[in-house]
Amino acid sequence: MIPYMSDPSNIKIPDSLLPADGRFGAGPSKVRQAQLDALVAEAPTYLGTSHRQATVKNVVGRVRGGLHNLFNLPDGYEVLLGNGGTTAFWDAAVFGLIETKSQHLNFGEFSSKFATAAALAPFLGDPEVIKSEPGTHPEAVARPEIDLYGLTHNETSTGVSMTITRPEGASGLVAVDATSGAGGLRVDASQFDCYYFAPQKSFASDGGLWLALCSPAAIERIEKIAASDRFIPEFLNLKTALDNSRLDQTYNTPALATLHLLASQVEWFNENGGLEFSAGRSDRNAEVLYSWAEQSDFATPFVAKPEERSHVIGTIDFVDSIDAAVVAKVLRAHGIVDTEPYRKLGRNQLRIAMFPAIDSEDIASLCAAITYVVGALAS
How many CB atoms lie within 10 A of CB 50? Predict the structure, then answer.
């Protein structure tokens, strides 16, 4: 990087260029004020109450029913939930969804984690891992010995998304990590058996909870493995999660605020047109961000193929003469936060969330603010 002539700490972005809301993090993400207002309104009779009683179970029911409607789940599909977030679900899936051998697509930090967990399990065969370079995604390949295909809808670390389809000729379950994609990207439920995620991304809630949309085949697999002699820790037992979910509760105590924020976001989506509404908001955000980058003389989308560019997480590379870390520091000083790149990717770029809760006007303001900062740094 070349040294700048101006001191970045002296840069003052005009108020007219600042977004109304400066939260652009990949998760935890922006929470809408309406969600907070709804939680505060019900807090005196909701927070601090038993998760085994109707007050909380009704909210869990709203979440489960709302997700069923949002994703237009076919008959027989069920919504499961449990504590621990996606990291816990990877371990739960190793114990309770894979029979003998799985295949995993690896195209970034998070898409590699399920494969790593499966490889450590002494009761499973070595998983097959199909890898591609960051900024791209590989394709699954049907094989007779594979009983579970681990796909990722959106790679949070790199800003790559993929269309979810069953591998042609595959007989195994299709399990999709949708942590940053669910709610912001379109998906056809007939193409998966288990679509799992945590609520701190498009659903504008907090982490520590996992949700899984499971087909009848996935439910059958869960029950079959649970009935076998395989040891499964109770906290990671998907049959335990299934039984409790059918009662609109979790096995152990959940975070009540997380559930309430999630319920509000799901209902906002459904009341305004469902997945087409929520994904449409991310579409508009992506159009603003990528169009700006393509027209810029100092920035470019990291993901080369437009059809693989995520509409919920945008990664924007900068020319070598502009230090993206300095740009992010100036933005943060002005209340525009969490635009830093994923730490392990090691690129000179910004990573910008475009989840449905984020307004496209704020994305446009962010782009204008970045352009101003770059101009000031180069002057």
Answer: 12
Pick from 287, 291, 298: which is nearest to 371 by CA?
Answer: 298
Share of the chain above pLDDT 70, in %: 98
CATH code, domain with 243: 3.40.640.10
Last residue of a domain, one of 229, 255, 271: 271
What whole-number distance in Å separates Cα of residue 195 and Cα of residue 214? Answer: 7
- Tens of pLDDT, residue by residue over 231-278, are 999 999 999 999 999 999 999 999 999 999 999 999 999 999 999 999
Q: Yes or no: say if 167 and 185 are a contact pair by the CB < 8 Å rule.
A: no
Distance CA 179, CA 323 (A): 30
Say if CB 334 and CB 18 are below 8 A apart.
yes
What CA–CA distance (Å, rounded) separates 268 from 101? 39
Contacts with 289 (C-beta within 8 Å, 6 or more apart), sequence order: 314, 316, 352, 354, 363, 367
DSSP-assigned letter for residue 182: B
- Out of 209, 237, 271, pick the residue that ends a domain: 271
Q: Read out DSSP for 47-65?
A: TTS-TTSHHHHHHHHHHHH
